[in-house]
Queue: 4 jobs
Job 1
Amino acid sequence: MHAELKAKAKEQQTTIADVGCNKAYFSATALNYLAPHYGNHLQLLFKLHDARGVYQKPCGGCNECLQQPPNHTVGGQATVDVFCFEPSEIHVTSLTQARDALYGPPDGTSKPPGQETKVNFHITQAAVSNSSGIARFPVNCTGNVCSLANSDQQMQEVKITTVDEQMRSRGLPYLDVLKIDTEGFDPAVLAGAYESLANQRVGLLSFEYHKLWKRSRGTLKECVHYLDDLGYSCYYDAPVLAKVSGSCWQDAYEIRRWSNVVCVRRGTAMEEELYAGSYLAKAKRKDSPTKAKDMKSSKAG
């Protein structure tokens, strides 16, 4: 996350769209970089979710709330706008209560006393897909894998929207970060963001990839090529990044195992940051001393 947000240091405002917000631990991780003066946002949210007593795993399915704050933060942010989209009524209720306690209702004109950064946390109860309309969603969803495909539970109607529709209706010129985690429907969300992506109005894109993609019949290869055509380079997100775009694509990458993919606009400082943390850069650095040694030996001969 640090590499992706490092380029924000000289800017004054950041906009994040968190699609499939769940307990908002992704946004909290980003806020630990962008608005550190509040404290550890992950732990602040966890304590409020836990106190409500409706979650079996209030810390998150992978204990996300235990992640330590970063050693390096991004300074100079006057405001951070988080747009949280979540179809589960239980999650939305918990998020709203936590938001009001931590940040207050969204208000672009003021910030809490003593805070250097104002966090505007917008919450919308809606599913995000490739078209607008109405769908049915599980009523009592408290886990991490609920989706529009769960048909064996009590259901309620929820609004469906698209990234492009939200960008237009809210007058958002740019998303610094677009995170997608919709339990297998990430390809549909990407399709509904075509206009925003084609016009380079998304800086960083992160989505989850796993076996649940069978729900939408999408493939990683299709999505990576789609994003490549729109000007985005994609990597498997890991301690050392693996590029999957362009000529780096291999069919072996279609693993359908729980993983994350991160994409950035080509030709940007953020792309340079991702490349620097990739296997490609690591191999190049390792190879450079050998080449230099060979050249020196050749000249000496």
Job 2
Amino acid sequence: MLTTEHLLLRAYQSSDDANILELYDTPAVQLTMTNHLNTPLGTDFIEAVFRPSTKSAYFHSIITLRSDPSVFVGVVFLEHFDNAKDRSAMYSLAVLQAHQGKWYGTEVTKVVVDWGFRMGGLHRMWLSASECNLGAIRVYEKAGFQKDWVARQENWANGRWWDCIYMSLLEEEFSAMDREQTASMV
């Protein structure tokens, strides 16, 4: 279990299923995070997609409020995709719309990035974000992720094509940022 100033990151429980469906059934989440058509999801999504991903993820947590752990905020993943030898993982974050704009994405990203490099032994974290998801891109840039490349017109959403931005953060970049933060505290 990890904590931030406002949040608790804990293991998935089957009692989270209704909240998971609410999160992934949100049009904005479907349009920016998934590669399937924006359609209502059912319990088959939990069984076929979500639960297996919690078992195969390098790191996976349910995000709740620290002050009230019964309040579901979102989910966060680090996934290896069969390249464990390269010590690289994909970062993925989804926050319920009701909890967006409260800096929770920034808090979670900072703590998971820290865990990934300090405890998880990662060398590289990477992610992709639709260009229309400006809030997410700002969160990732604050955490030190840099743009690597753009997949042009990769995401069809709201009647148009959107580019997908691929970003990464390397272990040595994280270490340099960490040293700068430590020096500024002295």
Job 3
Amino acid sequence: MEHAQPQDTFTPHFEGKNFTAEQIKNLPFDDGIRMGDIVVVRGVPLNEIKVGDVIVYKFPGREPIIHRVVEITEDGLITKGDNNRNIDQVNEGIAAPIKAENLKGKAVLHIPLLGYVKIIYLKIIGRG
């Protein structure tokens, strides 16, 4: 969810959904999440998720994905990585709409760089 070119990938999507510049600036994790950041995720029911929230979801046999909710439909949550041009479900084919059984939680806090401790440790012991 790093914002390499937010004016190209992140901001236009929400402007197209009638978000104001101030609302976009106030979205959770508006400055992105980078490699080495620690993210704290809290389990929440699907009905508590709002457009703009950052969630973790997982489908069987696949790695967890952390992306932002950009739309809520009858079929489930529609998500998009902030640095991706397209949404996951339609254009990227990454996932089907997110249902309750796929939702692992909502990102509530991120601590920049703290994750590098683990990354360095794993490299030292030959597992990274």
Job 4
Amino acid sequence: MFNKYLTYYSPATQFTIFCFIVSISFVLGALVMNLYNQYSIGISSEDLSTLTNISDSVSFKLKISNSLGLIFVLLFPALTFAYLAHPKPLDYLGVQKKIQLPLFLISLLVFIVTLVGVSFVEQISRHIPGFSADGNDRYDTMAKAMLKGSSMKDFLMNTFAICVIPSIAEELFFRACLQQVLLNWIRKNPYFSVVLVAILFSAFHGQMSGFFPRFYLGLILGFIYFFTGNIIYTIIIHFLNNFITVFFSYLKELKWVQFDIYENADVNIYLGALGFILSIATLYFYIQKREPFKLFQMGNNDIYI
């Protein structure tokens, strides 16, 4: 198909091919999900999204359906593009086996203050017309249905379907592939690429009331990858972010806690504002100290960002 790896081609060509692969994967993923839903649940994906009362059995199948969608729509195109782009696809994706403890601890610190900041952003966004929780019952119903289950089997399935698959698929697609292609294309203004990918990351989830909090989280993840060059850090952080919701929802299902993290995740607005400011300030400080790192090597050419 190509007489050389995609990294030898112009960034515009890489982006075009990436979009082509994504388009095919999207159609394939939608087809697979619809076939699975009709075969296992008995209704189409479109009809499934209109359900208001989802049983435990349907909830379990919904998790499988969602995982299949993420694998085909996000993970498959990311791995395919990396395979076409570089002789060592994992190197291209920023999958580094070596974890530098100082960098990881910094990333973890940023994530902790970001968790508090997310609550602040969410509380502020409720006052923006069109971004309140009104009209998002469908998304909330589906999300809550996927958190159902009080058995260990349910907990493990929730962890796999809500934490493991999304963190790997979304980070490899949005940060390791899309952000990298855009960074290579818009080198004079790399921050624009990070912001653009964060917007697309939030829009992908399709929930207007969660757009700004998810954009903020995507921005933090994007800058962590931009700073470290190691996608493992963002995968771990993304996993932890989702796992907190899964874990506390599981405790509530067991009636060990009364706290509903999905409904009552607000923190004191002043504490939230402090977390927001600290996360931005920490990122700014370390980005200022950042040195360009070699993203990958093609022949005698080193690609730095």
